[in-house]
Design a protein that fits this description.
Rossmann fold; 14 strands; alpha/beta; 7 helices; 29% helix; 293 residues; two-stranded antiparallel ribbon
Length: 293
C-alpha cells in the first residue's frame, strides 16, 4: 500500500477543497503563473481568452481559464517562502494526491510554474525597468532545512560550495541553499531576457540591507556588497527578492518545472527606483505570456 496521508498532514475542507487555497483538483491548470500580489491576478487573467473559474481565500487568489487551446491558471502566493511552501505543496496535492484514499497517485502529473514578480537589482549595469530570468537561486531563508537536499549537477554543486564557503568565511554563516530553474523553461525564456542568479531573502528590510530605524548586523550591512561582487565563472548574482529560491526548491523536490521572471524596480547600487513600475510589470506579463504561448 502506498503512504496514507493523515487528516492533519493534508487538510481537506468539508466541500472537498484543499485547506489554504480553497480550491478543488479540477479547478487548476497544469500551467500556473505565480504572482505575489493578489491585485496582479486580474492583470494577468485579463490576457486570457476565457476565464472559467475565480476564487479567493486570504491573499491566495486563483483564476483559471485558457489562451487558445491552452489551459492556464494564475495564482497569488503573497510574500515570502513560507507562503511558497504552502502554495507549492497544496498545488501539487491537487494533482498528485487522491483525495478519497489520501494516497499519492501512481502516475505523477508534472506542472509548470512561471513566477512573474518584481525585484531589486544588484548590478550597476542592469537598467531599471528591464526584465530578468533566474537561472538559479540562492536561498537565505530557512525553508530548505526542513526537506531532504535536492540533486544538483556537478557545476551547480561546485557553485553552491564556492559561494557557501566564501559567505561562511566572511560572515560565519553557511545557512543558504541553492536551487536551479527548470532547463526546459529556461530554454524557452532565456533568448528573450537577461539572466543571472537570484538571491532570495527572508525579508524586505534588514535581510536586503535596508536600514530604516532598526540597526543592522554585520550581515545585514554587508551582504548586498558581497553579492554584488560575487562571481563564479561568468555567473553573477543579479537581483534579490523573497520567493524564487523557495519556488525552485519545491519544484525540484516535487518533480515540476519552474522559472522566475522579474521586473527590475530598483537598482540598489545606483540607489534609483522605477518611475513607471506599473508599465514595466504590464510589459513583463505581456511578454511572458506571448513567449509561453
Amino acid at each position: 500500500m502506498r503512504n496514507y496521508i493523515s487528516e492533519t498532514d493534508l487538510i481537506i475542507n468539508s466541500n472537498g477543497s484543499i485547506y489554504h487555497l480553497g480550491i478543488k483538483p479540477h479547478q487548476l491548470a497544469t500551467t500556473i503563473i505565480l504572482v505575489g500580489d493578489p491585485d496582479r491576478v486580474p492583470k494577468v487573467s485579463a490576457l486570457f481568452d476565457n476565464i472559467d473559474f475565480k476564487h479567493q481565500n486570504r491573499e491566495l487568489h486563483t483564476h483559471t481559464g485558457s489562451i487558445g487551446n491552452n489551459a492556464i491558471s494564475v495564482l497569488s502566493t503573497g510574500m515570502g517562502t513560507d507562503n511558497i511552501d504552502i502554495v507549492m505543496n497544496e498545488v501539487d496535492a491537487l494533482f498528485n494526491i487522491d483525495f478519497e484514499t489520501r494516497q499519492p497517485k501512481e502516475e505523477i502529473t508534472p506542472l509548470r510554474f512561471i513566477r512573474l514578480g518584481t525585484s531589486g537589482c544588484l548590478q550597476k549595469d542592469i537598467p531599471l525597468d528591464s526584465i530578468l530570468i533566474s537561472q538559479a537561486a540562492l536561498g537565505f531563508d530557512s525553508l530548505a532545512n526542513y526537506y531532504n537536499p535536492i540533486k544538483l549537477s556537478a557545476n551547480e554543486q561546485d557553485l553552491y560550495t564556492d559561494v557557501k564557503e566564501k559567505l561562511n568565511q566572511k560572515f560565519n554563516t553557511s545557512s543558504i541553499y541553492f536551487a536551479p530553474a527548470s532547463p526546459d523553461l529556461y530554454h524557452i525564456f532565456s533568448p528573450h531576457f537577461a539572466n543571472g542568479i537570484t538571491a532570495t531573502c527572508p525579508g524586505f528590510y534588514g535581510p536586503q540591507g535596508r536600514s530604516v530605524r532598526a540597526e543592522l548586523s554585520d550581515l545585514g550591512n554587508s551582504l548586498l556588497g558581497f553579492l554584488e561582487q560575487y562571481q563564479y565563472n561568468s555567473l553573477r548574482v543579479t537581483n534579490f527578492e523573497m520567493e524564487t529560491a523557495g519556488i525552485y526548491l519545491m519544484a525540484n523536490l516535487l518533480g515540476h518545472q519552474a522559472i522566475s521572471i522579474s521586473a527590475i524596480m530598483a537598482n540598489r547600487v545606483t540607489k534609483t527606483f522605477s518611475t513607471q513600475a506599473d508599465k514595466t510589470v504590464a510589459n513583463m506579463i505581456e511578454q511572458a505570456i506571448s513567449i509561453l504561448f
